[in-house]
Amino acid sequence: MTVISVIVGSVRQGRFAEKPARWILDHLKKREGVDVRLLDLKDYPMPFFDEPIPPAMPGLPPYEHEVVKRWTQAVAASDGFIIVTPEYNHGPSAVLKNAFDWVYPEWNRKAVTFVGYGSVGGARAIEQLREVAVEMQLAPIRSAVHVPASALFAHFQGQDVTTHLAEQDANANQTIDDLLWWTNALKTACSS
After folding, report:
1. Is beta strand 80-86 parallel, antiparallel or unpaired with respect to 2-8?
2. What Rg, from alpha-carbon coordinates, does the chain have?
């Protein structure tokens, strides 16, 4: 069984992130052999990273924060990721970057893709997160979903966003195909 976790990368009140996260989660649930998990950063209220030793350092002592332990275990239990990210001021949310910073070996050698929203479909946030992913030894795939601004505007006006997201169904399915191929290739390579 392949475990794919969808990470909700915003904790704002009235956030839009839950809608595309649940939409992409529904697409994943239709796939055979995939165990889908939702990792909502609201459920992992980690302090901002302030440890004296970075997680990439060999011999890192055990994490002291209970929520960081839970987050690390959730990341470790995943084979691949779809990260739903807003774009704030040409970049990802601080809470999402912080979630990356707390963990290192648990990210390694796993595939990741993104569902972005905001200005230009979250493209600039995704671009930055791809660079962060490479540093974490994740394998960011080329395919991603860029939710059109019309969906975000509909959300802020209290309207249903289902039709806006449905316009991206074909792209979502192609992105999932690519993510699963890379996830399975990396799992095979890491087990041999």
Report:
1. parallel
2. 16
Cβ distance 103 to 12 under 8 Å? no
| HEC per residue, the chain | CEEEEEEECCCCCCCCCHHHHHHHHHHHHCCCCEEEEEEEHHHCCCCCCCCCCCCCCCCCCCCCCHHHHHHHHHHHCCCEEEEEEECECCECCHHHHHHHHCCCCCCCCCEEEEEEECHHHHHHHHHHHHHHHHHCCCEECCCCEECCHHHHHHHHCCCCCHHHHHCCHHHHHHHHHHHHHHHHHHHHHHHC
What's the pLDDT score for residue 109? 97
Q: What is the mean pLDDT of residues 46-70?
A: 88
Q: What pLDDT digit, counting tens, does each position of 81-102 carry?
A: 999 999 999 999 999 999 999 9
- By the 8 A CB rule, do 80 and 182 touch? yes
Show the CA angle centred on residue 54, arms to residues 104 and 99, nearest 5°: 50
Question: Percent of the chain having pLDDT more than 90?
Answer: 90
**Cβ neighbour number for residue 126 with a 10 Å cutoff:** 24
- Fold classified for 2-41+72-191: Rossmann fold (3.40.50)
**pLDDT above 90 (res 119):** no
